[in-house]
Amino acid sequence: MSMRKTLLFFFSVCWSLAGSAESSPDLGQKAPGDFLKQGNYDVFPDGEGLPEGLGNARQGEAIYSQHCQTCHGLKGEGGSAEELAGALHGLTDNPPDKTIGTYWPYATTLFDFIRRSMPLSAPGSLTNDQLYAVTAYLLYINHIIKSEDEISAKTLPRITMPNHDGFINVFDGQE
To answer: Residues near 162 by Cβ (< 8 Å), separated by ≥ 6?
Structure first.
């Protein structure tokens, strides 16, 4: 192919791609600003980024029943979604049970995950107090805290998860 034909072919492909972008099928919707703002934060293992709020397991049980139980089952023992509690096997067993109590290294990560993505049908819809309460309930049914323990930005980072030492800490030594 001559240089002229090669360039003509190249510009034809570019032109057709540019034209197809203008006539895209216009799938989806522009994300609302509040939705984008919801995901614009980070919570770290030491609690940096946790919002104000407070909750305990007794309060969280009602929230769990209303928003989580349909997928995660009674007391987090599994349903159409993963089990969250009630592990019968450790991580080194076959098959392993990856529940909150056996797998998650930081309680703050649990809060962050729930805040970003749950309930599945309406992520970001729970208040900070509801988030702390349902986090407390999940920690309670995994035998990590007591039902009356209050969870907040101050207390949540102090909780040592059973699998805390099961991961490599990438945050140590970073400034």
So the answer is: 101, 102, 142, 144
102 alpha-carbon distance from chain centroid: 17
Nearest Cα residue to 56 out of 145, 142, 151, 154:
151
pLDDT score recorded for residue 150: 97
Burial of 94 (0-12, 13-18, 19+ CB in 10 A): exposed
Q: Which residues of the chain have pLDDT under 70?
A: 1-24, 38-39, 171-175
**Residues 6 or more apart whose Cβ sits within 8 Å of residue 111:** 43, 50, 131, 132, 135, 156
Cα(21)–Cα(3) distance, integer angstroms = 27
pLDDT recorded at residue 118: 93
Its pTM stands at 0.77
**Pair of tokens at residue 139:** 């920690």
